[in-house]
Amino acid sequence: MKKNSIVILDFGSQYNQLIARRIREMGVYAEIVPYYEPLEKIKEREPKGIILSGGPASVYLEDAYMIDKALYDLGIPVLAVCYGMQLTNHLLGGKVEAADKQEFGKAILVLDDATNPLFEGIPNNSQVWMSHQDHVVKMAPGFVQIAHTDSCIATCYNKEKNIYCVQFHPEVTHSEYGKEIYRNFVFNVAKCEKNWSMNNYIEETIKNIKEKVGDKKVLLGLSGGVDSSVAATLIHRAIGDQLTCIFVDTGLLRKDEAKTVMQVYGENFHMNIKCVDAEERFLSKLAGVSDPETKRKIIGKEFIEVFNEEASKLTDVTFLAQGTIYPDVIESQSVKGPSMTIKSHHNVGGLPKEMKFTLLEPLRELFKDEVRQVGRELGIPDHMIDRHPFPGPGLGIRILGEVSKEKADILREADAIFIEELRKADLYNKVSQAFVVLLPVKSVGVMGDFRTYEYTAVLRSANTIDFMTATWSKLPYEFLEKVSNRIINEVKGINRLTYDISSKPPATIEWE
Length: 512
Ligand code: XMP
Prior knowledge:
The protein is globular and about 85 Å long. It has three domains: 5-189, 3-Layer(aba) Sandwich (Rossmann fold); 198-385, HUPs (Rossmann fold); 404-499, GMP Synthetase, Chain A, domain 3, CATH 3.30.300.10. Helix 7 links the parallel strand 11 and strand 12. Helix content is 32%, strand content 25%. The chain has 14 helices and 18 strands. By secondary structure, the chain is an alpha/beta fold. The two termini are 44 Å apart. The strands form three sheets. A nine-stranded mixed β-sheet has the order 2-1-3-4-9-8-7-5-6, with helices on both faces. Strands 12-11-10-13-14 form a five-stranded parallel β-sheet, with helices on both faces. Strands 15, 16, 17 and 18 form a four-stranded mixed β-sheet that branches. The site of xanthosine-5'-monophosphate (XMP) has 14 residues, from loops. Xanthosine-5'-monophosphate (XMP) is lined by residues 296, 345-346, 348, 389, 391-393, 433, 467, 504, 508-510.
């Protein structure tokens, strides 16, 4: 099914992943490769179309991102976006110049040839999104202009070579008919067929796992999070009991987490899961420690030790399975170098390098929403698939300062109430991440006839697309009131609740 694909050459645009997702949503596989991918390798992928992405550079800079001109003679249709358009015209004999001022924002697309297959279903004078400094002032020989805005050549094409160039960004939602542009390129120009579906993916991947693994054994660290759970379920479908999962209960997990994971994946799905109760080990290592980074390091190190110990009890394991997903893969090969989205301290649970396993990563090609879809099709219940992210160090970084079992138990109760109420009010899926934080601060309160002196907790709820920036969720007052009443009345140890109204930046989503 991947033979029928689109290859996106990455020139550093922040929108690359959006392009790939738009195309996959249409049922066609799209993959992102760095612009310097050798032509031979591109050909091996047998794409039906190639998209050159945008990028922040200028073709005239000394170290501008260049490609081999022979790409345009492969006989594979090309759609060149923004920088891609400038590069194409530059390489093929046109002229690109810096505009007087940067064009950033909405523009109106005037069609000069509305009958072109790229414009099927697109009315004249629609809105498009521009973000560029340079523009094409003279098209390369063989190109004709088929659309313009009041400031630039917006689309041109070379009929003979089947190359289309657009100065705007069709992948951005502000481009009113952007989706149609990609649809027209993918189906009218590149003649792709719709065959990318999660059903097909599951079938094909199960077959591949069976072939690759044979009669060998596979080990997987199951965290209860979406990626490792979906990976485990998929592998289990393929090879059943040849898969062993290790689930480490650090004592820093959400309420009933170990029980839920064992119930869903152990009892219902009949997976072979070794649940390790390591609460005491983690808590004793954390005793007396209040510095956040030290806590993270201790938790990460302990996790690896526990995992190692358990793994060494198993014999004949050949494969180590991981829930690596496509954004992790793209990130590691990004032409911009690793971005801030992957912070080293986020890799708690990352496994020791000296382990001599062959990696098995059945979700490497999928975006997060595709992973969720696979999970649903495999029958994983919604409440496990739509879960908010949960940090590796868990409650260890949500109990500010020193961690103890007493505090972890208090926090678990409060957090469970917040989440339960969010679900009941149909708000859980409208926010990106919500949880409770326990402060090392006690304050005075009154309960019936008694004076209390207990902990203060914080409700935190953030809305975000990429977790790099976030705003605080504007939850209704009535809802907050209800949660506050319940937590203060039902959780012994908390007598005061506050709501975090800080955005990221300058705050972070977590408190430590
Ligand atoms: P911050 O607090 O940096 O969080 O705004 C952004 C996202 O990263 C998660 N996070 C972590 N995940 N280990 C993890 O596995 C960590 O140490 C860690 N710290 C933050 C956080 O929950 C949010 O989703």
